Amino acid sequence: MQAFTYTLPAVRGTQAGREYFTTMCPLRLVPVLFRSADDAKRPELQLQRALNKARIPEIARYIAKHPRTYILSSLTASIDGDVTFEPSSGAEGAAAVGFLRVPMSARLLLHDGLHRGAAIEAALKLRPELAEETISLLLYVDPGLRRAEQMFTDLKRNETRSARSGSIACDHRDEMARLVKAVIGRVPVFAALTEMVRSTISNRSLKLFTFSGIYHATTILLSGRQEKPFSANVSLAAEFWSTVAKHIPDWNEAQERRASTSELRKRSIHAHALALAALARAGKSLLELFPAGWEAKLGALATLDWSRSNTQLWEGRAMIAGRLSKAHTCVVLTGNVIKRHVGLRLTAEEEELEARLSPR
């Protein structure tokens, strides 16, 4: 008796002398084909495919929030089962169009797209109308899943993640990303010295800041102002960062090529994302407490010693054992130095962190 099958339109191809198939799958079938709980998997395969459950709601919300513009890349999987490919008339050859018949009893093991697959199931609960939309599948036949471990390794071997700066800067749905791009264009030192693509800066680079660093800091600065007009937030953030730049002479010297950006990163706290975030924390308090006179308060920044060699001030705050740290606690403690220097009182939370500092 012939087993029940899924019949999928497919294109047959060849890699390394083996057949593989590209097909389209309705989203409603994804949870059925790729069962997340499969006790039959070998332990080593389960280890390779550890599911980070925190990522699933984020991807699901993305799909549900953008039902007309979402994009999902292909799912790549192995099939443990006897599949049959029936080429269309006149489509004989190594590469052919036809129909792929997959037994319902076959096991399909995802190599790439584990979180996307789980998120599709979650998204369909939010938007059932997407059930008949499709996602492309790249399927390799692998009886007994004998090649599964090596296939997973080979597929991931050359995989690289997009740099955070570049991915944020290109996200047109992110209002803060659009705002930060506008701010950078209005602040001369940012316009001249910001790395827009990479999230790290090489020693040879003439840049001093990263887009992701400015994005994170500006998000802190403007937190609680989401209801304000976009243009007002752009103007306020641009004015704040321009005023800060006036009182950090090294930034202006770097902009005018009179100071080496690599040397500034080696010797100064202010040349790192940590300092931008700490400045933003102090700035948020200034904007709230002195809405009409915060600019004058920032003048005190000109006398702040930003040198990394000043370990009495920065060790245990911006630096741990001589190395800069972007941990939240370090950002807060660095921000405390800035707040006190410009004449602001610390909050109860900030005072508590100060009390935990080891005596120096």
- The amount of beta strand, in percent, is 15-25%
Structural class: alpha+beta
Radius of gyration: 27 Å
Helix percentage: 40-55%
> Uncertain spans, ≥5 residues at pLDDT below 50?
36-40
User: Helix-strand pattern, N to C?
Assistant: EEHHHEEEEHEHHHHEEHHHHHHHEEHH
Q: How many domains, in number, for the residues?
A: 2
Query: Could you describe the largest sheet, including whether it forms a barrel?
Result: 7 strands, mixed
- Tertiary shape: elongated
The average pLDDT score comes to: 87
Explain the overall architecture.
The protein has 360 residues and is an alpha+beta fold. It has two domains: 5-157, no CATH class; 164-356, no CATH class. The chain has 17 helices and eleven strands. It has helices at residues 30-33, 43-48, 55-65, 114-126, 148-157, 164-169, 175-186, 188-193, 211-221, 230-246, 249-255, 261-267, 273-289, 294-297, 311-314, 328-341, 348-356; strands at 5-15, 18-26, 75-80, 84-87, 96-103, 107-112, 134-141, 194-195, 209-210, 319-320, 323-324. Strands 4-5-1-2-7-3-6 form a seven-stranded mixed beta sheet. A hairpin with a 2-residue loop joins strand 1 and strand 2 (18-26). Helix 7 packs across helix 9. The longest helix is centred in the middle third of the chain and has 17 residues, at 230-246. Residues 36-40 have low confidence and may be disordered.
